[in-house]
Amino acid sequence: MNKQASFFESVSRNFDNAAVLTKYPKGLLSQIKAANAVYQMRFPVKIGNKYEVIEAFRVQHSHHRLPTKGGIRYSHYVDQQEVEALAALMTYKCALVDVPFGGAKGGVKISTRNYTPEQLERITRRYTVELVRKNFIGPGIDVPAPDYGTGPREMAWILDTYQQLKNGEIDSAACVTGKPTNTSGIQGRTEATGRGVFYGLREYLTLKDEVEALGMQTGTGGKTMVIQGLGNVGRYTGTISIEEGDIKVIGVSEIEGTIVDEKGINIAKLLKYRASKGSILGFPGTKTLKSREDWVSIPCDILVPAALESQIHKGNAKKIKAKIICEAANGPVTADAEEILLKMGVVVLPDMYLNAGGVTVSYFEWLKNLSHIRFGRMEKRFDQNAYTNMVDMVVRLTGKTISTRERSLLTKGADEVDLVRSGLEETMITSFHQIRANYTRKKSVKDYRTAAFITALDKVASDYLTLGVFP
């Protein structure tokens, strides 16, 4: 039996497939591909009555722009190669959506299920101390964010630890993003990756020729979706697709099993059910599949792997019955699997684009922390007053009347979350069409992943050459 390509090998192969189609010097491409700095650490933490030695990593993949940016993953599967691959993806992801960061990633080799919140706090704070000691964190150096196994809570612990060690640093709140909104965070960050997935998918579904070639009509309405993983990304992809896209989620897979319902699964209700029962199994109206792994073979329009990497591989790729795969997770489709899927006519919308909503809104949070002002604070009331005056003038000149609700809708000034969503939508649409231009312009480009890599390489290489980093 042939060995499956690792996540690291898949990222490297995808890079090489794109690099060979560019005209950049081999040395420059090698510099872009390689990780610039790797910090592997082991530190002791007291757990109960004993000490455990925790293994952890922080990889800064590219210093072509600073700070570097990337999440921190808590998983017992974490290893250095995985973190290096994730950091590389962050470099290309940041370039794609035009945020001024180099790529980075962190990993702590633990299973969060094995620790209490107090123990996780101790581990998180100790990890932060290590990063500060080696100058691997700071508003202008390296800015972490949440990833698998972490969230706003852990980011708040990181911020607090950093501020204790860097007392008086005026921009200290910008040392980490994904924080709670009441702790220098930003509205719309928690939903950002899932919302970015929806915006990217929605934009692809406007392409009449391509969508009709798949046997579908343009637009999101009426499409069917299957989601693997109900973590932060999966849940928001599902709820936003249902509420704003009129998409029907017919299947959901989680660690406890896979459920289906052709009539549609209400993700918001499913989340409440799981919170009370501890499982998605038995959710009213659904049927449980015999094998959890059968999520790959559920017939649907859109398949959304939103969990971990390498979930679709050469061993199960031929079972796929979806027309479009949206890579909401990092690296869920291996390079081997993608070759099979492309021959089957399946469209793969790549993670380095589709998953970029999180880093985009993290950029907005970073800017907010550096500017020390909430988005919308300066202009909301001015805009609202201007809109009110305009509506009053139209009403007076026409002699018409409008309801209180209509007036409210027409005169509302933008809140922070409105501006964040607007900025994210603009970013995802603009980035898609940059990728699309390479996809249609270069005859040798056969898939959106290669087009995305070329788009990112053009931007990173331009930085190196223009800024004189690579003379």
Give the topology, please.
Layout: H1 7-19, H2 26-33, E1 37-47, E2 50-60, E3 68-74, H3 80-96, E4 102-108, H4 117-133, E5 142-146, H5 152-165, H6 192-204, H7 208-213, E6 224-228, H8 232-245, E7 248-254, E8 257-260, H9 267-277, E9 287-288, E10 300-305, E11 322-326, H10 335-343, E12 347-349, H11 351-354, H12 357-371, H13 380-398, H14 404-411, H15 416-441, H16 448-466
Parallel strand pairs: 3-4, 3-5, 6-7, 6-10, 10-11, 11-12
Antiparallel strand pairs: 1-2, 2-4, 7-8, 8-9
CA-atom Rg in angstroms: 23 Å
**What structural class do helix, strand and pairing data support?**
alpha/beta
Sketch the major β-sheet.
7 strands, mixed
Q: Give me the CATH superfamily of the domain at 192-357.
A: NAD(P)-binding Rossmann-like Domain
Residue share in helices? 40-55%
The low-confidence parts are: none
Distance between the termini: 46 Å
Any guess at the CATH architecture of the domain at 192-357?
A: 3-Layer(aba) Sandwich
Fraction in beta strands: 15-25%
What is the CATH topology descriptor of the domain at 192-357?
Answer: Rossmann fold
E-strand count? 12
DSSP summary: helix tally: 16
Query: N-to-C SSE series?
Result: HHEEEHEHEHHHEHEEHEEEHEHHHHHH
Read across the widest sheet, the strand sequence of neighbours is 9-8-7-6-10-11-12
Mean pLDDT equals 92
Which outline best applies?
globular
**Which CATH top level class of the domain at 192-357 fits?**
Alpha Beta
